[in-house]
Write a structure and sequence with these properties.
- The complex is a heterodimer.
- Chain A is mainly alpha-helical.
- Chain A has four helices and no strands.
- In chain A, helix 1 packs antiparallel against helix 2.
- In chain B, helix 15 packs antiparallel against helix 17.
- The radius of gyration of chain B is 26 Å and the shape is globular.
- The chains are: A mainly alpha, B mainly alpha.
Chain lengths: 75, 530
């Protein structure tokens, strides 16, 4: 989870990612951020994030991203 | 059958009456028949194309679904004995076969679109290249006539196919229901481009007669007609005069044409969408919004989130992300990070995907270089804006103007101006003429002509200008009110006599002030030609 928070903070240092759970709904993360985030997560966790996983539900909070990463690691 | 013809209005009224009289389980079947009748009006021969798209997509999704079921069943039955690596390998094999069906169907259907829409453009350019080598050989255009709404229904259907492949939802087992999803007549000509999971419940379910739906739907239809026939069709006269006579109308007229076209396009396209959404509402069916007051946007990226929303999200979900997060792209990004630096590596996937998306968006709008340049123009502005974010942040850190009214107004005006400027590429007959006209803004000083009767030579009278001024203000006022609460809800809260009076005035306005009669032409919607 800490790694994910670090990656997110690199993108938007002004956001409190521990608390925010509407990153997509409130348009804090845009498409460009998502691409950068996917590249970082792929590298950091050695996982493949298929395009069908790129839905608001999976990227709305650091916890949701963490959950998706764990699920993909288990697959 | 144009939305603005009496035939269409009679068609919708009759359909709505029958729709609520027949048994409810037959409502969607009636809609299917009505949609095909509507399509047949455009040319019975075109039905074959929409049928082919429906049938091929149906069979492709059956096969994809079969493979998914087979995989899930195997994993479920052998959960205890299959290792993680084996499961991954089996999944990959299954996905590969599913992908083959999807790609086959996409190549076939986008192939039809490409041949019908772009073959003449390709041949024309090929002939030009041959001409450069002094070749006397030239090829004749194939002369295909573009079936109505093919760009819209092809995109909508391929979106459905990709969603089934991605496992977002199960395929539609009833081919006739799929046929209705592909051909639903209000959205067939110019969208919105619907998603199957958003539309299916309201499209196929039973609908009781509901006065609110009829009332709200009717209001929305009237509002759409007001924008189309009072504003767009009136401005069209002046815009056509300016763009068809580039030798006469230069300098200040180019600026006038640019802003007139921006307003015309919005009134035309959003008016058409209002009519489509309103008709669906009368039938109890919910279509997605395609506009959220786009001319109030403070940046070009925000503008594209609020203009033609369903096309924008289509490109984002089915093109931008698949390209930008694809394995080869991430690999390329990684290589660039290693060999150059982080910043370049991060930008590569986004830049490549953005350029491809905007080239495609441009060419989707029309088979001409104008649209390619227009698409690339948007792309360049978006990428420059992206690069300027640190500068903006510094600026806002230094000057506390972000939430000041005048600064936001400046941003809105700037975005409107920029979008109007880029949209001019849609208008003139070729890219060269557009640049020449841009140049004339700085070289031809004729601003005084505006005050010496120049505006009256564009085909509109002083009454037309007054009417346009008032109508645009009404649209602007309604848009401002909509920011807080839906205007229809506000009107519904008023005493019934007042709300009926408002809509009676709107109805009269359309009848009396619509652009009909001598000198006016009942025009097709601009986006229906895309």
């Amino acid at each position: 989870m800490d790694i994910i928070i670090d990656i997110l903070s690199d993108l938007h240092p002004e956001v409190d990612f521990e608390k925010c759970n509407s990153l997509i709904d409130d348009k804090i993360l845009d498409s460009f951020d998502i691409v950068s985030l996917v590249a970082d997560l792929t590298d950091e966790f050695d996982i493949a994030i298929p395009v069908e996983e790129i839905i608001p539900k999976n990227f709305n909070s650091a916890a949701a991203i963490n959950e998706m990463v764990k699920r993909l690691e288990d697959e | 059958m144009l939305f603005t013809t009496s035939n269409f209005i009679i068609f919708v009224i009759l359909l709505s009456i029958i729709y609520y009289i027949i048994p409810k389980k037959m409502q969607w079947q009636l809609l299917l028949i009505a949609s095909y009748m509507f399509y047949a009006f455009a040319g019975i021969q075109f039905i074959v194309y929409i049928l082919i798209t429906t049938i091929t997509t149906y069979f492709a999704t059956i096969n994809i679904s079969k493979l998914q079921t087979k995989y899930n069943k195997y994993i479920k039955e052998n959960k205890a004995i299959v290792t993680r690596e084996e499961r991954r390998a089996i999944k990959e094999t299954s996905k590969k076969k599913q992908r083959q069906w999807m790609v086959l169907c996409m190549v076939f259907n986008f192939g039809i679109l490409a041949v019908l829409k772009y073959s003449n453009f390709a041949i024309e350019n090929f002939n030009k290249i041959l001409g450069l080598f002094n070749s006397e050989t030239s090829f004749k255009g194939l002369g295909f006539i573009l079936p109505l709404g093919i760009s819209f229904y092809t995109f909508q259907t391929m979106g459905y196919l990709i969603d089934v492949y991605r496992g977002k939802y199960d395929y539609e087992k009833n081919i006739f229901k799929l046929a209705l999803f592909v051909s639903f007549f209000p959205q067939l000509i110019q969208g919105p481009i619907s998603r199957f999971d958003d539309l299916k419940d309201s499209l196929f379910s039973k609908h009781n007669f509901n006065w609110d739906n009829i009332n709200f739907g009717f209001q929305r239809i009237l509002w759409g007609y007001f924008k189309k026939v009072v504003i767009a069709d009136r401005l069209l006269i002046a815009v056509n005069n300016i763009i068809q006579n580039p030798d006469i109308y230069q300098g200040v007229y180019v600026i006038i044409g640019m802003f007139f076209y921006a307003i015309e396009l919005f009134a035309d396209f959003s008016g058409g969408i209002d009519i489509a959404i309103g008709i669906a509402e009368v039938l109890g069916i919910h279509l997605e919004e395609n506009f959220i007051r786009p001319y109030f946007s403070k940046s070009i990226t925000e503008y594209w989130r609020r203009w033609h929303i369903t096309l924008g999200t289509w490109f984002k979900d089915y093109m931008f992300f698949p390209i930008s997060v694809s394995k080869p792209m991430l690999k390329l990004s990684k290589t660039c990070r290693k060999n150059f630096n982080d910043a370049i590596g991060k930008r590569i996937p986004v830049y490549v995907a953005t350029i491809i998306v905007w080239l495609t968006t441009g060419i989707w709008h029309g088979a001409a270089w104008n649209f390619v340049v227009w698409g690339l123009g948007n792309c360049i502005v978006i990428l420059i804006s992206q690069e300027c974010i640190p500068l903006y942040q510094k600026f806002h850190h230094r000057f506390d103007v972000k939430n000041k009214f005048y600064f936001r107004l400046f941003q809105v005006v700037r975005t409107f101006w920029l979008m109007s400027f880029l949209r001019t590429f849609d208008c003139y007959r070729d890219v060269g003429t557009t640049f020449k006209m841009y140049g004339s803004i700085f070289t031809v000083y004729n601003i005084n002509e505006i005050f010496n009767g120049g505006l009256m030579q564009l085909g509109l009278t002083i009454k037309d200008y007054i009417l346009l001024f008032v109508s645009v203000w009404i649209v602007l006022l309604v848009s401002l009110l909509q920011r807080k609460e839906g205007i229809r809800i506000k009107i519904a809260a008023k005493p019934i006599m007042i709300s009926y009076m408002i809509f009676f005035i709107l109805f009269l306005g359309i009848i009396v002030f619509g652009a009909y009669g001598v000198g006016f032409d009942q025009s097709q919607f601009i986006y229906s030609q895309f």
